[in-house]
Amino acid sequence: MSDGKPETPGNVSGHHEPKVTITVDDHQYEVRPGQWIVQDLKTAVGVDPAKALAEITPHGLVDLDDASSIGVHEGQRFMSHVRSGASS
Question: In what order do the strands lie in the sheet with 60-64?
């Protein structure tokens, strides 16, 4: 019986789930490519839930909202940091 969700990677037609390598806080992690909720990505790579996750882009850091979705692909770079206050 199948609910459409494999219990373990690789048990669907003998194929392994594809992985991409991303860097978070100078550590490399293999994760599935595609859309992720930021909070779930943080959990998958062990980022403290109290910290913010930012994508490192050619234009600088882009803070990611925990509830937003991000497309994850090979070679992406991220860093976590203490959240800054919203008021000034």
Answer: 27-31, 20-24, 77-82, 51-57, 60-64
The highest-level CATH class for domain 20-82 is alpha beta
* Every domain of the chain and the residues it spans: 20-82
Q: Is the dihedral of CA 51, 52, 55, 58 positive or negative?
A: negative
Cα atoms in the Cβ-side hemisphere of radius 13 Å centred on 39: 6
Q: What is the pTM of this model?
A: 0.77
Residue 61 near residue 79, CB atoms below 8 Å? yes
pLDDT at 9: 41
Segment-wise mean pLDDT, segments of 10 residues, the chain, 88 residues: 43 71 98 98 97 97 97 98 74
In what helix (H) or strand (E) does residue 45 lie, and over which residues does it extend?
A: helix 38-45
